[in-house]
Amino acid sequence: MDELLRLLATGEADTTPALAARLHCTPEALAGRLLALAAEGYRPQPDAAGRLSLRPAADSLLPGDILAGLRTRTLGRGEILYATEMDSTNTQLKRAAAERNLPAGSLAVCDRQTAGRGRLQRAWETPEPGTALPCSVLLAPDLPPGQAHLVTLAVAVAAAAAIAETGLSPGIKWPNDVVVGGKKCVGILCEAVATEKGPLIVAGAGFNVRQRTFPETIRHRATSLWLMGAHGADRRALLCAYLSQLERAMAALEAEGLSGILAEYTARSVTLGRRVEVIGATETFLGTAEAIDDTGALWVLDDQNRRRQVWSGDVSVRGVMGYV
Questions:
Q1: pTM assigned to the model
Q2: What pLDDT, on the 0 to 100 scale, is given for residue 77?
Q3: Rounded Cα distance, 82 and 57, in Å
Q4: Are 136 and 187 in contact (CB under 8 A)?
Q5: Which of 33, 99, 116, 193 is least crowded, fewest Cβ atoms below 10 Å from its Cβ?
């Protein structure tokens, strides 16, 4: 990120003369750089003492505006990849991480995603720019071998907590769909990526924010924050809240394993205690979802009174009476 933009975003900027001296440029050159930032959509403005800082526009996903709103120590403070349109934030961040050795905490975000995908390779797109929040974060989790799959549960906890900050009451459909009012509002996909620093995880989340309608084929199971009543939801504020909550959830996961987030996860679960249909590649069965164990697996008591362990990578779980 440009040093001037970073200073403005983090509140480290000063008056124009002091800032010009710090950047080793003339006041005239600084004025030109400020005009260039304004042309990109930024709004650098002075306070009463003449100190410059950014005044982010509502809903802006420009990198400097995101940085100005962060409450995190690391997440979002690496490189921020932004474009009005991307095929997939996961794809772009994975490629950049592999090719350019990005630091953990780097972020990819866009206004419109054209080739997004979720778990089990389901498509997830944002037809209208500005209606959704597709984002991906590069993580370097400090977890024992074999526990990387638990990151997706931490992402679900964080996404739900961020939505709760808008005043809504989200739930989590096992393993990682965030729902509001019984319909899906956030889809999550975590993928591994090999880098020079070793294997990292790209944690992708797609928030439905301002969609007013959905295609007929998914209308019965999809919703947005706007449709659920959060008409004032701001994507930048939502993103910053999500990154803060994800940093918290990941810290708990790293410190205590799944037990660090399991109470919060189960408190929001809309799967536990319900009749579910488990759909696998070779078998489908009905039962009651009973518990989530310390491996993240779901235990289901089937209609033959057998307790069965279900893994998220193998099956789809649906409520018998509806999506959840």
A1: 0.93
A2: 96
A3: 16
A4: no
A5: 99
